[in-house]
Design a protein that fits this description.
The structure is a single chain. With 268 residues, the protein is of the alpha/beta class. It contains 9 helices and 7 strands; from the N terminus they run ααβαβααβαβαβαβαβ. Strands 1, 2, 3, 6 and 7 form a 5-stranded parallel beta sheet that branches. Helix 6 runs parallel beside helix 7 and helix 8 runs parallel beside helix 9. It is globular. The N terminus is likely disordered.
Length: 268
């Protein structure tokens, strides 16, 4: 009788131990044991069970500028006081353009210099790979409205806001860049424009030297104006909006000439 009771108790203990082990492996948060290869087996999904929903992409953050600039920025020191004393900034507007942007990028890469590309939202949407190439090369991006309407200061408040915010979102969605600077088409500024820019978390960017290359005044004229650059200057050129052969030829000569003066190209 004693022997029979001992066998019974032994079987009971074995069953309870097995049940406890099963409970441990099925408990929430318990990691499955590794298999013979050392890898943890993946949990299988029951047939017909819904797939996990992807996390939605976040929206670009629009934080109003704490102290909005009440006048457009013309010099590097106004946007970056910590820039080197010999710094100059090349800004390039109206792209990306499938013909001229790649040529400008190749030229800048040849001389190991950087620039700030003021992009139009519609062009970013049409040529996303070019916009990505610009950022991948280490250049900066500035918001230049969604469709480049002129005169920009004459737009309604609603249209003005949609042009600024639309380009802000398009650039962010394509490149992951949240733009900090905004350039009005044609330099068309007003109190309403400045307020809209500040409300969208940006500062208004203008320029110091404008060779009016968009009007195609000739390569020599563009070169002459750009070579007036001095430390702190913000230069304006274009890679979109038309034939930019004159601009490209001028930059081919101007960039090495400015470098030979000991000037350093910086992004804004």
């Amino acid at each position: 009788m004693g022997r029979r009771r001992a066998i019974y108790l032994g079987v009971l203990v074995a069953v309870e131990t097995t049940l406890a082990a099963c409970a441990d492996t099925s408990a929430p948060g318990t990691r499955p044991a590794a298999n013979a290869s050392g890898r943890t087996p993946k949990a299988s999904r029951r047939p017909g069970s819904p797939s996990p929903s992807p996390s939605p992409s976040p929206s670009p953050v629009f934080r109003p500028v704490a102290v909005p600039t009440r006048r457009p920025i013309h010099l590097i020191s106004e946007v970056n006081p910590a820039a080197p004393p010999n710094a100059i900034a090349l800004t390039i507007d109206d792209g990306p353009d499938p013909e001229w942007t790649p040529r400008v990028l190749d030229l800048l890469a040849q001389h190991h210099v950087v620039a700030t590309f003021c992009m139009i939202g519609d062009a970013v949407r049409e040529y996303p790979d070019l916009a990505k190439r610009v950022t991948a090369a280490g250049h900066a991006i500035c918001n230049h409205t969604m469709s480049h309407p002129q005169p920009f200061a004459g737009l309604s408040a609603e249209r003005m806001s949609s042009e600024v915010a639309g380009a802000h979102r398009e650039i962010w969605k394509t490149t992951g860049v949240t733009t900090r600077l905004f350039r009005a088409p044609g330099g068309s500024w007003s109190p309403a424009v400045l307020n809209t820019v500040a409300e969208n978390g940006m500062q208004p960017l203008d320029w110091d030297i404008d060779p009016r290359d968009w009007s195609r005044p000739g390569t020599a004229a563009i070169e002459r104006d750009l070579l007036r650059a001095k430390p702190g200057s913000i230069l304006l050129c274009h890679d979109g909006g038309g034939d930019r052969a004159e601009t490209l030829r001028a930059l081919t000569n101007v960039v090495p000439a400015l470098l030979s003066r000991g000037l350093t190209f910086v992004t804004l």
